[in-house]
Amino acid sequence: MSQPVILSDIGNVLVAFDFTVAAQRCAAKSPYEAEQLFHRLDGIKLPYENGEKDDETFVRKAIEALEFQGDAAEFRQIWCEFFTENLEMDQTLARWTGKLPMYLLSNTSGLHKDYLLSTYGIFRHFQDGVYSYSAKCSKPGEEIFLHTIEKLNLDPSLTFYIDDLPANIATADRIGFQTHLYDLKNHAALDLALNRWMGV
Ligand SMILES: [Mg+2]
Q1: Which of 10, 92, 115, 162 is 20 to 30 A removed from 184 (C-alpha atoms)?
Q2: How far apart are the CA of 72 and the centre of ligand 1, in A?
Q3: CA 12–ligand 1 middle distance (angstroms)
Q4: What is the pLDDT of residues 46-79, one digit of tens each?
Q5: 109 and 181 co-located in one domain
């Protein structure tokens, strides 16, 4: 695509997240303390986000690992309700929406992607995206970036990529994207960088 494009990460860019909220709610129904609880998912979560397990298998295995005393619907709800929409980012994107295409690139699971896109208004700005669980690979590896270029027909030199993790930004830089290391506490820096990039 020979036009400027915004490509954005999701977690701690479009929505902030706090696993401890979910951990505390789970702990009320599990023999484990909130602090240790999600370490019990270490071996399950990454393969799930890389598409090696489907939603139902993940939920079943997580319930087993946590000895969660509730049903699958209850666990799914707790597992999704720890995000907060980034309203400053919504305002920034609203200024650019319709002027250039916007796409998502996220390490995420099917449960979270479906929940996020159907719950938060900020996702209305985005036309399409690439997600680790369906791409079956994840950031910061190069493979998912190359897949994104191909699937969304991107020209990296015209693509402004936003992510909060230095390792992901390093890969994007190497491939030739325009990048911005996002900090939730310094949103103004993104506005400046976007304005500069768009020549405003
Ligand atoms: Mg992130």
Answers
A1: 115
A2: 27
A3: 5
A4: 999 999 999 999 999 999 999 999 999 999 999 9
A5: yes
How far, in Å, is the centroid of ligand 1 from the Cα of 18?
12
Residue type, 14: L
- Contact by Cβ (8 Å): 166, 181: yes
Residue 110 CA to ligand 1 center (angstroms) comes to: 16
The number of distinct structural domains making up the chain is: 2
Phi-psi region of 104 (alpha: psi -120 to 50; beta: other; left: phi over 0): beta
Q: Does this model's pTM top 0.90?
A: yes
Taking residues 168-186, what's their average pLDDT?
98
Between CA 25 and CA 165 the distance in angstroms is: 27
Q: How far is CA 18 from CA 4, 34, 44, 148, in A?
A: 32, 13, 19, 27
CA of 69 to the centre of ligand 1 (A): 31
Q: Are residues 64 and 93 in the same domain?
A: no
